[in-house]
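Design request, tokens follow.
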């Protein structure tokens, strides 16, 4: 069958609008399309391909596990799932792990667990969930309601109740909203989809203290910020604040779909058999690949390399901005960076992303005003420099087109 981009419109639900080119092969931080054009990948499958494309050690593990066990369901357990859970517990605050297929499912589990914990300990009146404006927690109806972007949750009927939103980094507003009725607070320790917004340290510490005061569980959504992306294994480790529940996905599987919820034994015991589940969660294939990805990422060499690569990105992005004056600031941490557009180019992040694709660079947006980079943590420095050369060409293309149209 001769597959074309135009066929997408004939066979797929139109909730996506993919680029015109169709990728067919990847290696490391480079991708080739149907016409054998080469692209540098700064998108990483939206912060997923933590070790790039077709990492040889991940391919090897996938092939080995693929010849042993593919799927069992949770009527049985399996060795890769138990090994991965133990490694996650050993490396974090966690004592118990629940596996799912995605970040949304991990967040759904976290929210249900928090509600069940509050019900068991304090009664049904303790049901309020607080999250933050511009936050993003997935696309299930519960998680999209908890997310702080109303456009994603409107138009689907009555929403789950007892969910309130607060401005991120506004501790005074948060203190007014939280009470003894609050069962949980869900936040990203670095907002991703909402614009690559870093938290103020005092804000995070204040949220933790107020959760303790009101007996509310603190849930960190580290679906995008976790597994080495900020230069720490998980972002909370760089903030000095420990959550009660943490969710992780995206980079966890290195490109293979998997999510997980991490928590303590005391909290975990409230999800008794039958209260929650997932057919594919803890799949042996997914867990085997994720275990190998985790082993590679959780090393001083890779984590320190993320810090060094961030500095290289910032150096070149600052140089580009000095020349073209399009960014108000460069946001984020590690290999999760955002170029926030200034007032002159406000709302035009997608224009820059599309121009980048035309110049053979794959990147992302985080809302209408931020160009987002979430590449492999082990992207070679020469690929960073080549990719940013292409990004500069894309920036020049947008700027020059504007000048020509204004002339």
């Amino acid at each position: 069958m001769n597959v074309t981009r135009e066929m997408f419109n004939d066979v797929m639900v139109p909730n996506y609008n993919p680029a015109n080119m169709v990728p067919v092969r990847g290696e490391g931080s480079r991708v080739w399309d149907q016409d054998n054009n080469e692209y540098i990948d700064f998108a990483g499958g939206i912060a997923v391909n933590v070790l790039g494309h077709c990492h040889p050690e991940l391919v090897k593990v996938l092939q080995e596990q693929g010849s042993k066990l593919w799927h069992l369901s949770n009527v049985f357990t399996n060795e890769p799932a138990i090994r991965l859970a133990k490694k996650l517990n050993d490396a974090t605050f966690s004592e118990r792990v629940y596996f799912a297929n995605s970040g949304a499912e991990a967040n759904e589990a976290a929210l249900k667990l928090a509600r069940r914990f509050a019900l068991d300990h304090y009664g049904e009146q303790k049901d309020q969930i607080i999250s933050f404006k511009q936050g993003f927690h997935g696309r299930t109806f519960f998680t999209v309601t908890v997310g702080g972007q109303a456009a994603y949750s409107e138009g689907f009927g009555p929403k789950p109740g007892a969910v309130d939103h607060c401005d991120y980094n506004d501790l005074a507003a948060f203190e007014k909203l939280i009470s003894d009725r609050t069962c949980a607070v869900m936040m990203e320790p670095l907002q991703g989809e909402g614009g690559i917004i870093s938290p103020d340290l005092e804000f995070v510490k204040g949220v933790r203290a107020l959760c303790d005061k009101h007996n509310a569980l603190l849930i960190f959504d580290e679906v995008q910020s976790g597994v080495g992306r900020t230069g720490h294994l998980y972002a909370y480790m760089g903030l000095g604040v420990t959550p009660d529940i943490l969710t992780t996905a995206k980079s966890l599987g290195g490109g293979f779909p998997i999510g997980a919820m991490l928590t303590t034994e005391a909290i975990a015991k409230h999800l008794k058999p039958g209260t929650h589940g997932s057919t594919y969660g803890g799949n042996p294939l997914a867990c085997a690949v994720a275990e190998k990805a985790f082993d590679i990422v959780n090393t001083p060499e890779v984590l320190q390399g993320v810090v060094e690569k961030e500095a290289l990105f910032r150096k070149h992005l600052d140089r580009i901005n000095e020349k073209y004056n399009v960014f108000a600031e460069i946001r984020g941490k590690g290999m999760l960076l955002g170029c926030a557009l200034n007032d002159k180019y406000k709302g035009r992040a997608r224009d820059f992303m599309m121009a980048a694709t035309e110049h053979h660079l794959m990147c992302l947006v985080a809302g209408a005003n931020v160009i987002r980079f979430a590449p492999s943590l082990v992207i070679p420095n020469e690929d960073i420099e080549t990719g940013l050369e292409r990004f500069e060409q894309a920036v020049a293309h947008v700027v020059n087109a504007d000048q020509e149209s204004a002339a």
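Comment from the thread starter after seeing the answer: thanks! The two ends are 47 Å apart (CA to CA).
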